[in-house]
Every structure is written in C-alpha cells, then in structure tokens.
C-alpha cells in the first residue's frame, strides 16, 4: 500500500471550445462587469466580449510586464478603483496571468484565465511580484484561478520562437514532478500523460515546422497538466536555478527553462531510483532522456547556451552561490563544484 498526501484545487477547465462560446456559456445570468487583463493585441477580441449578452462593462488594462513589478500592480489597482468588477479575466502568458493574480488578492472578483502560452501559471496558486530587482514568489490559494479556458485556435498564430521554449517550460514542470519527493501515484500518472502530449506535439512541430490547431491542442493539454503538477508537488534544482538565473540575472523565463532542462536532468540522473529512470526512459523512448531532450531542442532551433541568453561567465559562481543558499528537496546533492561544472557546460 502506497501512503501519500494529495492536495488538489477546485477549478473548472473548459478545454477546446472557442473562447467567445465558452464565455457565453460560463457567464452567470445577469450582467457581469469584467476587468480584462491582457495586451493591446487583444483589442478586437475585447470588443467582441463587450457585445456578449451577459456582459455589463469591460475595463481593459493592457500594460503587461514580465515578473509583475509592484508599481504595475498599483497602477492596475488604481485603474480598477471604484469599478464594480465581478470577474478578472486574464488573457495571455504567465505575465498577464501573474498581474491578474496580484490583483485578485485585493478583490472579491473571480479570476478567470485564458492562457496563450504554455507557462502553466493558470493552474497554480503561485504568484510572483518584483520590486527593486528582487522577485518574491509565494503560494496563496486565493490566486488559484476559478475557471480556465483553453482555446487552441486563439493562440495558433503564436510565433515558434515563443511556442517552443514555452513548451519546454511546461516540460520542466512535468519532469521535476516525476522525481519530486512529494510525488504520488496520481501526480505520476498525470506527469506521464502531460509529457506524452507535449512530446507528441513537439515532435509533430519539428516535422511540420508550422503550428496547427492539432499541435497546439497537444501542447496546451501538456501545459495544463504541467501547471497542475507544478501546483501540486514541490519542484527541485531545475526550478530554483531557473528562478535564480531568470529573477536575479534577468534571463528570459522560458528560454532559461529550456536550456536548463537537459543539463539539470543529467545532473540528477544517477540519483534517481531505477523505477524513476525506467519511467523516464519509457516516456522519452531512449536510454538517456536528457540527451533525447537536447536533440529535440536542437531540431526545433532551441538548443540555447547560457552565453547567448546573456549570462556573463563570471556570474556562474555567483549564481551557484545563490543556489547553495536555498534549501529544497532534490534527488542529487547540491555540490558547489558540480553545479559550477553543470552551468559551465550549459555556457
Ligand atoms: N505563477 C506561476 O505558476 C508561473 C508563473 N510564471 C511566470 O510567467 C512569466 C513568463 O510567462 P510566459 O508565458 O513565458 O511569457 P510572457 O507572458 O511574458 O509572454 C512573453 C511574450 O509573448 C507574448 N505572447 C503571449 N502569448 C502570445 C501569443 N499566443 N502569440 C503571440 N505573442 C504572445 C506576450 O505579449 C509577451 O510579449 C514569468 O514571469 C514567470 O515567472 C511562469 C510559469 C508559472
Ligand atoms: O516566478 C513565478 O512567477 C512563479 C513561478 C514560476 O515562474 C514557475 C516557473 O519557474 O516556471
């Protein structure tokens, strides 16, 4: 008998329906006022939402900045002051969703999310706000979205240099869930399912070289499960390293996740149990899954290195210092020289 704890969150997921049809069905009777958080790229859609029968007013805040600066939260808060908002509707990537999460902390509105990348933030109770160059990441169940809408046609025009790294960001959540100390049979099965969908989507993309609704559906499904497991179990070295390199050295979020993924999995490999190794091998279809991942990244034009992402070589020991100061469960021991070697090879 396996003994485990499993905490999950109440959220309604509407997968595969056009966002306008889905909103029409999900909005309560009467007239709802909506705070729409999403970039100006969505103005045409906002006009269509305004025309839905069950919509009262739509207040569109269109300034989105990665890592959610505190000043931006205050600016958006002022914009919404005095407006009776029933629903905060975020449409965009992790940055738009992050701003919506910060706003819902001071609001009685429900948080509804339409993700257009694969960050997975729409399925988590995690939020981050940055101030004076420092990003603070917390968990709070009040920021977990109430409803999530996945519309594969909406983000079909996503450029591949955004889609590919973002899909590897989702893969990182699933990979770390598979070896998380808190994992359990439910999270394990979910992680396998998510990885199979992401791999199928990425392999099709590497052949077809163009995003289709079918590929986007697979990637969105993998991202949905990726966000869910990110919320449900603790993450290890990979996420801490991405947090340090992204937050403290300002490297782009999804690209740093992409780069770290094979290097960190290699670092962990010998410390994974045989059962976990076999699980990875079965999912990725080869003896060394970290190699399979890197080869797939190269085929997709995402075989990045730390130098081109903007880190200077002298910053490697500084980054490792930050990592050594953090405490978190991880399969492989944190050994300073080994971590430096890992980042040197990623450089
Ligand atoms: N709280 C959580 O659970 C999580 C939070 N995050 C946070 O989310 C942020 C990163 O989110 P990402 O989604 O990677 O990037 P992002 O939200 O910063 O978007 C990157 C760029 O792509 C554009 N974009 C978004 N969707 C598009 C589409 N379909 N077509 C064309 N352009 C599009 C955006 O306007 C932006 O310019 C980071 O701050 C990260 O820390 C990421 C994962 C989980
Ligand atoms: O940094 C945040 O806003 C919160 C969590 C994440 O970004 C998770 C991740 O590293 O993808």
From TrEMBL:
Ranges for domain Alcohol dehydrogenase iron-type/glycerol dehydrogenase GldA: 12-152
GO terms, molecular function: maleylacetate reductase activity
CDD domains listed in its UniProt record: MAR
Alphabetized UniProt keyword annotations: NAD, Oxidoreductase
Entry's transmembrane regions: none
EC number: 1.3.1.32
Span of domain Fe-containing alcohol dehydrogenase-like C-terminal: 166-347
Alphabetized Gene3D superfamilies for the sequence: 3.40.50.1970, Dehydroquinate synthase-like - alpha domain (1.20.1090.10)
Keyword Oxidoreductase part of the UniProt annotation: yes
Entry protein name: Maleylacetate reductase
Organism field: Fontibacter flavus
